[in-house]
Amino acid sequence: MRQQVPVSTIMTTNIIKLTIADDLTKAESLFKHYKIRHIPVVNGATIIGMLSYTDLLRISFADAIDDDEEVVDTTVYNMFTVEQVMAKKLITITPDTTIKEAAQILATKEFHALPVCEDHLLVGIVTTTDLIKYLIDQYK
């Protein structure tokens, strides 16, 4: 297996983003439409937080209720803002960070995505799924 491969080779660069002005209903829609689990929250091109689908599930009662699920989601989501729910203490990496270094960070922390920044600007995102796909490719 190659040792010094940069995350730029596996990171997602077509990033779905939110701003703190967006609401959680929009966030849920993006999670479901794009089948993703992490959305960076930005101010311009600068990352200020990360929202995960798990964060949304923590505040939603919808999974426990089958009747009129959409109404419950909207009501609960309107009680919180993106800024209140997002993770604010982020670890970022650069495009030159090695895949091994990114994997080590993700293996020791309680999150599953790393924003990739260059000069404080968001240029990509690396997730545990990206790492697993990379690992699988090594066995082809």
Automatic annotation (TrEMBL):
**Which Pfam family, giving just one, matches this sequence?**
CBS
Q: Which SUPFAM superfamilies does its entry note?
A: CBS-domain pair (SSF54631)
What keywords sit in the KW lines?
A: CBS domain
Q: Would the keyword Manganese be found if you checked this record's keyword annotation?
A: no
User: Record's InterPro entries?
Assistant: CBS_dom, CBS_dom_sf, Diverse_CBS-Domain
Domain CBS residue range list: 11-69, 86-140
Quote the protein name from its UniProt record: CBS domain-containing protein
- Identify the species of origin: Flavobacterium aquariorum
